[in-house]
Amino acid sequence: MLLAYPTSTEQWQWQEGQGMPYLTCTLLQDWHHGFFTQDFYPRPPESLIAVLQPQTAVFRVKQVHGDRCLTPTEIHHVMQLGETEEILPPADAVLTESPHQSVWVASADCTPVLIGDRRTGRVAAIHAGWRGTAQRIVPKTIDRFLTLGSQLADLSIALGPAIAGEVYQVTEEVAVQVGQSVLPDEAAGGILDTLSHLEHPPFLPDEESGKVRLDVRRINVLQLLDLGITSEQMAIAPCCTYQQPERFFSYRRTQEKKVQWSGIISRSGASLVL
User: Are 244 and 251 in contact (CB under 8 A)?
Assistant: First the structure.
């Protein structure tokens, strides 16, 4: 059993691209998208785009475990200003502005989140590790959707393969820090107790003193529910990067800095589709 909370395996399908497997979600069936496996390593998004929709613009960022979300225009602007010595600007989410833009994030235990707006066709890709989750990167990215005219009810959200809570040991301090993103006014002890006693808890007991098992995807689900997103608008991949070495890289398992990519391509808005 890879996950401690319900998820529908029927929402997820294995596809084949160039003879290799990648995962898709029915909630995002209106968009070309994919959660790629380790089989595609070390190919970058500029190469992987050929599997989804060739000759589509690719946008990605230098991931830093933060809460910054950039649009393609902002990415170009930061690069032109020379705000960073890196080739790519630091951020952990990318949100499209126009059709035929692909956005990408890399992960190797952290949660890749792909979001689509069924009405506008706009999409986002988010890298949500425990640090970004503690900073509420997914709700902050959704705030940007709303600023650009989206409605919560039109969003579809897929949380891809990531390390499962059953095998992700962290300190109680880390658990509290992440839990504060859901219960900001609760004392540390109250956060641990309250979230550990939910029906599908994001914190699980650990045999080592001062440690707990943390389910980062479940924390993100709680954040989304708190925003008013319904459970029907979300899907969680029935995959654990740590427990499925034949499919995924896991930094926690091997300490290797290898990643798999997840990407999605924006489309025309529903009102523009003939």
Answer: no
Q: What digits encode the pLDDT tens for the residues 228-249?
A: 999 999 999 999 999 999 999 9
pTM: 0.95
Number of CB atoms found within 10 A of residue 231's CB: 10
The tokens describing 36, both together, are 């790629």
| CA-angle at 211, arms to 210 and 215, nearest 5° | 150
Place of tokens 């990167």: 137
- Residue 122's φ and ψ, nearest 5 degrees, are -70, 150
Instruction: Give me the pLDDT at residue 40, please.
Output: 98
Using alpha carbons, select from 49, 48, 45, 77 the residue that is nearest to residue 63. Answer: 45
Count Cβ atoms below 10 Å from residue 32 Cβ, excluding itself: 20
How far lies 269's CA from each of 30, 74, 76, 139, in Å? 11, 21, 24, 22
